[in-house]
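Q:
My hope is that you can spare some time for a protein that puzzles me. I hope you can help me see how the letters and the tokens relate. Thank you; the sequence and its tokens follow:
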Amino acid sequence: MHSTTRPEIEQSHRARNGFTLIELLVVIAIIAVLVALLLPAVQQSREAARRTQCRNNLKQIGVAIHNFHDQHRSLPPSRNYDHYTSWAFLILPHLDGVNLFSTWDATLKYYYQSDEARLTSIPVFYCPTRRGGSHFSTQNDDIFSPLETSGHVPGTLSDYACSAGYGPNWNWINSRGAMIMGDAVTDPPTIPFGNFAPPGATLVTWRGRTAFKDLTDGTTHTILVGEKHVRPGQWGIAQEDGAIYNGDHPGNFSRCGGPGYPLAKTSKDAFNNNFGSYHDAMCNFLLGDGSARSVSVFISTDILGRLTTRNDNEVVSDY
């Protein structure tokens, strides 16, 4: 009878210590399944954090607008005047941007400001889902006036725009939104057609033309600022995604919402001058009461129009 020696037993044990190829493939397959299950959850968690940050950005902008109102007894104008600057720069002192604000010569048009004033980015103006860091206009930020010409004058961008409303006889100057173009005096005076300031004109005075008291539909039912849609191929291009501090091109700093101006449902929608975001199926807005709210991109344009218009006496109860 053959007996098994100790060396043979030890060799047999050593042979069974490792994984077989099949066992290794099974483990890899299990890990792959777990990763596939967990990755969407991780991505959703990250996007939820980015959405929250986006709303927090709007809340900070809301605090700045309320502080501006307390100081000036008016809402920031969408732009203090043609060719000069926009609401986004006017609220900087209330966004811890006093030093940057002091670099701006309020008497001069956007195109004659220093590089520091035009190119300094403010993180709160960027949605983290869409883009982060510093981004600048790439073309067409030239003077939008027949009275004088300029080459491209780049400036920092933003993912947020004030509400210009919508409606019959709507225009960029006398819009039905909460924040409209300011009332100003230039020297020399502006040319009657188009409100264009003459070459070399300086801004003497300006003031906002709306206040919270003018939001007769209620501050909780009126949009001040929202995420702005930018058409494919238009990133950094003026009149749509140009310099946020440039008050010469309305598409840089304002958007419409209502019949004819639905919310963009995807980042690839070919809408122009509409609100829209990179968040899935929703868009963030700042309301007059300082709250930030996520709104479905499928909201009816009728309700959206009521929210972007400051005084149509059509209060929205739920949306």
